[in-house]
Amino acid sequence: MTAPHAEGSVTLTELDGVATVLIDRAEKLNALTPELLDHLHDAVRTVSRSDVRVVVLRTGGRRAFCVGADINRFAGFSPAAMWSRWTAQGHEVFSAVASLPQPTVAVLQGDALGGGFELALAADFRVASASTRVGLPEVGLGTVPGWAGTERLTALIGPARSREVVLARRVLDAQTAHNWGVLTDVVDATDLETAVGRLVEQLAGGAPLAVRLAKQLLRAAADGVPSSYIEPLAGALSATSHDLTEGVAAFRERRRPTFTGT
To answer: Roughly what angle, to the nearest 10 degrees, separates helices 88-98 and 34-48?
Structure first.
């Protein structure tokens, strides 16, 4: 599945239970336009209804993951358009990414700034090359982060460090971002694909139904829902699955389980 337009494209491919969503506008450092966001939303909807086990989010080129919103596209928006079209659209699309039932991995081969960082924050995991930098520098442009970056970053690193990133416009190098808990893993550029493959394999090896249930439990916990309310329900649902029977049998027989997601 490929959704092209005059300035970039979004491609969705599936192989061996892994979906890859590629945003490719490399000549503009993958700066996001309303059209790209629409096509990304389409890809995410398709993935959400599929049986793939892991979703990998990539962008084109080697210079940047994504430098955020295309300034030339939003600079002329009226206040009403900025509210109803641009900011609302980004929130809707990135919320769809964050709400995917499958684990999601963002591959950062370069800088993730502004809306690009907000897109990466919508993923469950972020694997980055050592040269990557991340930040939310919008106040230096005269605007603010608009696609849930303040919320997701604060949930990861707390309000004090988030103030450094947003108000003081501190751009974090990859190692600092990793130390602060923003990045899952940081490796040399030559080892990036190996690191991504290793994580994807680990994620894909879990029982699909259990992984999806566990992801929902984690989201609920982040929203303050007591685990005593929902873990028993999730556990009861998993008890009806063939995967649990297979997992127990594999454990007893000291072999690797073959999960089917049923």
So the answer is: 30
Q: Which of 27, 118, 193, 201 is catalytic?
A: 118
Same domain, 213 and 109: no
Q: Which DSSP symbol is given to 82?
A: I
Closest CA to 20 of 49, 53, 65, 61: 53
Query: What's the pLDDT score for residue 2?
Result: 55
How far is the C-alpha of 250 from the C-alpha of 262, rounded, in Å?
A: 16
* Residue 118 falls in the annotated catalytic set: yes
Residue 221: DSSP 8-state: H
Q: What is the mean pLDDT of each run of 10 residues along the chain (262 residues)?
A: 67 97 96 95 97 97 93 74 80 97 97 98 98 97 94 97 98 98 98 98 95 94 92 91 90 92 86
Could you tell me if 80 and 116 lie in one domain? yes
Active-site residue, from 7, 27, 92, 138: 138
Q: Using an 8 Å Cβ cutoff, are 189 and 110 in contact?
A: no
Same domain flag for 18 and 114: yes
Between CA 244 and CA 89 the distance in angstroms is 39
103 and 219, same domain (yes or no): no
52/120 same-domain check: yes
- Rounded CA-CA distance 53/158 in Å is 30
Pairing mode, strands 8-15 and 18-24: antiparallel
Q: Do 216 and 196 belong together in one domain? A: no
Dihedrals φ, ψ of 11, to 5°?
-120, 135
214: containing domain? 208-253
